[in-house]
Amino acid sequence: MAELIWDGKYDAHGNKRAPVRIELPFQTVETVNESVQERQRTLELSSSGHDPEWRNRLIWGDKKYVLPSLLPEFAGKVDLIYIDPPFDTGADFSFTTTVPGTDLLLEKEPSILEQKAYRDTWGVSTEDRARGVGSKDRYLKWFGETVILLRELLADTGTIYVHCNQTMLPYLRCLMDEVFGAGNHLNDVIWHFENKPKFSFSKLLPRDWECVLAYAHTIGTHTFHHQLVPVKRVQEQAIVGWDPVLKKRVAKRDENGDIIYETRTEKLMGSVWTIPIVHPIAHERTGYDTQKPEPLLERILEVSSDEGNLVLDCFCGSGTTAAVAEKLNRRWITCDLGRFAIHTTRKRLLDTANVKPFIVQNLGKYERQQ
């Protein structure tokens, strides 16, 4: 099997370097949407020595520290992981937004924590550049360490989905094969978006799809539910004019040798999913640039998890995973390095009907020194 090699993957003795494992204490900043009665019940359970009721968790912090800190409690207990990691190694964590109802444009500069994380992840020093170490080396090291920790969190029956673009697809598949095993590769989901604008003056074929790599922790024991999708309408010539019909050919003939058709409205879902990108005026639109549509996450959660299962997303962005998990009655843990992502996700959840109480957490003192 091919192996990706990057600067620093092995030490001077040929041993593969393990991810940094620094465990920091989680600190609850806020319990959101909890009634007085619910808060009292939580206090009573804690004071009586019983475990308090589960609270979904929105964590502000670098996954480099969040994931090791989750391991003591959640190793082997996460049922489904979806991640949409950043692929723009030139990103600087800044963003612009408008104030609702005005033309005022606000620009957010990266925080000290975000700048440091960017430098530690993809920044290339003059010395590294002289040795031929580029941002791709740093990126592959960063991603490789991430998926090693995610595999430790994943249950034996769990599945991980990794969203990636065409540029990084071959690299990430090779890395996922190495960490999870090529035999646990379930498939590549092709997300085809029909409604993305295509410009006729471009000399490139339109990029109207992205890929989601799917791997089981242990193939054969992983949770899996087939989904049905509508059969497209076809036109068949009738005696007079054309009639829309829904037909599916089956390997069967009648006594005269004619093919028998069944009228069906649904078929088994395949691995090419045609789902529109989020429309600019859609209700779910948050203003977050890399926001993914809820129907995409709904399919992933319905295929690979059950009600009550635990879903993890360590690059929560606009909060789509948490919002969909909430609606489908899954437990969830999401985290992100960016404050804008945490604020966006918190607001989005509060706009979700019947959202259950959840906690917002920091990770260690370093998160508050800004």
Task: Give me the secondary-structure topology.
Blueprint: E1 26-32, H1 36-47, E2 56-60, H2 63-74, E3 78-83, E4 95-98, E5 105-108, H3 112-121, H4 126-130, H5 135-153, E6 154-164, H6 169-180, E7 185-192, E8 209-216, E9 228-230, E10 234-237, E11 242-245, E12 248-253, E13 259-262, E14 266-268, E15 272-274, H7 294-304, E16 310-313, H8 320-327, E17 331-336, H9 339-350, E18 358-363
Helix pairs in contact: 2-5, 5-6, 7-8
Summarize it.
By secondary structure, this protein is α/β, with parallel strands linked by helices. It is built from nine helices and 18 strands. Strands 1-18-2-17-16-3-6-8-7-15 form a ten-stranded mixed β-sheet, with helices on both faces. A two-stranded antiparallel sheet has the order 4-5. A two-stranded antiparallel ribbon has the order 9-14.
Structure in words:
This protein has 370 residues and is α/β, with parallel strands linked by helices. Helices cover 27% and strands 26% of the residues. The chain is built from nine helices and 18 strands. It has helices at 36-47, 63-74, 112-121, 126-130, 135-153, 169-180, 294-304, 320-327, 339-350; strands at 26-32, 56-60, 78-83, 95-98, 105-108, 154-164, 185-192, 209-216, 228-230, 234-237, 242-245, 248-253, 259-262, 266-268, 272-274, 310-313, 331-336, 358-363. A ten-stranded mixed beta sheet has the order 1-18-2-17-16-3-6-8-7-15, sandwiched between helices. Strand 12 (248-253) and strand 13 (259-262) form a beta hairpin. Helix 5 (135-153) runs parallel beside helix 6 and helix 7 crosses helix 8 (320-327). The protein is globular. The relative contact order is 0.20. Mean pLDDT is 81; it is low at 89-102, 104-108, 234-239 and 366-370.
